[in-house]
Design brief:
The chain is α+β, with helices and mostly antiparallel strands. It is built from five helices and eight strands. It is about 15% helix and about 15% strand. The strands form three sheets. Strands 5-6-7-8 form a four-stranded mixed sheet, covered by helices on one side. Strands 1-2 form a two-stranded antiparallel ribbon. It has a two-stranded antiparallel ribbon with strand order 3-4.
Length: about 210
Amino acid sequence: TTTTTTTASGISTTTNTNTDTNDGIVMKENRKGMRMVKLILVSGMRTSTLLERLPYLPKADAYASESGGRIFYPTTPPPSTTRSSPDVSSSSTSSLSSLSSSSSTSLIWPVPFDGSTNDDLTPFGLTEDGDWRRLMSREDSAGSDGYHADVADAFLTDNTGGDGSGGGGNIPLAKRTGALWDFANSLVARGFVIDCKSYASCFRVDRRQQHR
């Protein structure tokens, strides 16, 4: 049984209560009788916000931003990584530039917390689920226009537009193609205010921003 709860802030929490060891969620009992489970963080936040908050979030097996529109997995950094952790203690959120290393791999540097272990504080990289992105980039889905000048692409490649998909600047909503943006533009035509800033695969309609 899977239960998903969405809060007023747009953050979704998914709880899996299956006990079947074949479902890929519950792994096995360890010697202490505890069960090892997969942890997946799902949120409606912008991908840029996810990158800023990752140093303060618990390590997970997967991270989904934009209400599941984008999926990322942690990766192990090269053994040669020696850069010191950036100082982010003076701010509740860190800038993306302070999270990126000067090498070809950008890293997340977890912030120490009470009871943290060496494993908790080990820096890690990210990789995006390419198969899911290709599905979301289809014209009958979100299309590819939202990924132009994408901050996550710049972070993952450590070079804005480094993979060829993020360059050229943001494409205005009115010029974006794809089923998602067609729907968004139809709402704009009806007088709705749409928030699509830094979104590649979803948008928000904030009731507080509506004129009527």
